[in-house]
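Hi W.,

Here's what went into the run:
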Amino acid sequence: MLATRRLQKELQKMHAQLAPGLTLVKAEDLTEWVLDMRVLDDNPLYTGKTFRLKFMFSQKYPIEPPEVIFVQDAEHTIPMHPHIYSNGIICLNILDKEAWSPAQNVESVCISLQSMLTGNDKNERPPGDEEFVRGNTRRPRDINFYFHDNAV
Amino acid sequence: MSTINVEDSTDWLSTTVPGLSRLETSLRCQVCRDFLTSPMITSCAHTFCSLCIRKSLSAEGKCPACREPESVSKLRRNWAVEESVAAWRAVREKVLAVARQEGKSEKGKKRDATEAEMEAELPRRTQRRKVVAIDSDDEEYRPEEERNDGLVPCPICSKRMKEADVFGHLDKCQAERQQRPPPKTAFNPPPSSQSTPTKRPQNLAHANFGLMKSEVHVRNQLKNAGIPAWGSRDVMMRRHVEWVNMFNANNDAEHPKPRGQLLRELDEWDKFQGGWAARVKKPKETDGQEYIRQHKEHYEELKAAALASMRKAVAKPVEEPKEGEPGQQQQNAPNQQQQNEPKPEASGPTGALPESTPAAGPVARADGHSPSRSSWKAPEW
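Here's what came out:
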């Protein structure tokens, strides 16, 4: 359907040409892609760091926005930003239903995120980050860990 | 829709004419990235496929390109773009082959027949383009050196001559030109498409489901539209929206598909929805069972621990009430549950947790920690 065709085209385009600072890491299917992103200017908060982004697409893409989060692993951290929670969840209006437009695409979202980082000089997390992150890890696999920790 | 076409504007980047990539991007819809199908222009002057813009506006009444408020009733067909797309698609493959081959032979310093052919064709082409340019706004755009040669172009055929000769030439030129078919027609809508509106059925209106209280009304709406009327209210509503968009977009097409084919496409959409819904549901069930199986051991552990600590709590408060309290609070503080903790100091340790509900401890706490989970976890327990 629409999502499949559109994503195939985007993928092909990204294989051919991708904005500077972006690398396609994984796009095995048309539901989840992983991209690496560097900030191009010399913002001391992010220089020399590569951040990993995960895109998740619904069947209604591009009418509906993709879900985009920063991924934390051995080599990648979550960038410090007043709109990025420490669990990688991003508070960006274009990723919200209200401000998303079907004319946006994976690359344009990445570029928006790049500029969001470039323009930032605050080395901080959003207010209430700790609570939010705790609230958001209340998922099956995380609860066990939490309880385990609490019980011991 | 069945054949997946992955040709893209980036095809041109590796050829000798990478600039064509831009041309092609402008002929593609920003929503689906395909060539514009039945292009419609918005009141903010952006152009999208009819179906794409209708779907977008159904989801949100804003132009996808500029976010200006827009409504379906303001959409108008964009014939010029439709013609351009059709013309471009007709030659695309050939041009692509030529543009790729040219790159290869240039590297190898080898020229083959197709290229020679193309070269022979070239002068004719450029001439034709010049004639067309008269009708466009490009008239004033001439490279500088051409303008400074002391000659002036004929306003019709753009042949350059002395200024004094122009009037004499014009009569000849006009007569000559009338004999040929005017090049303008290529860019105008073909007569067939201009006469079509009379044959087309009226566009369907989106139903106002908000006003329909009962599901029967919704169902009737679908029956009246002549489309399948099964499924939940939500499914029916979405199906109707999809149908109206498909129907109206088909109305915008130069060659509308028969109704039967549209209905088949709607059926395809339906299957897709059904398949999608089923796929979402299934893993949930298996997940739950898997989860129980995987974590049964841990749960038993927790249960035992809770039982033990409860017995301790029941036994201890008599001797050392101070120790029991902070312990309880530590466990409860992060939970913030509403169940039996409004007054933990008063009766928490003893009164609220009798032995009769040993399992209630861990279960309730788990739910307290995961309000989102309680909904799917509850039925299994």
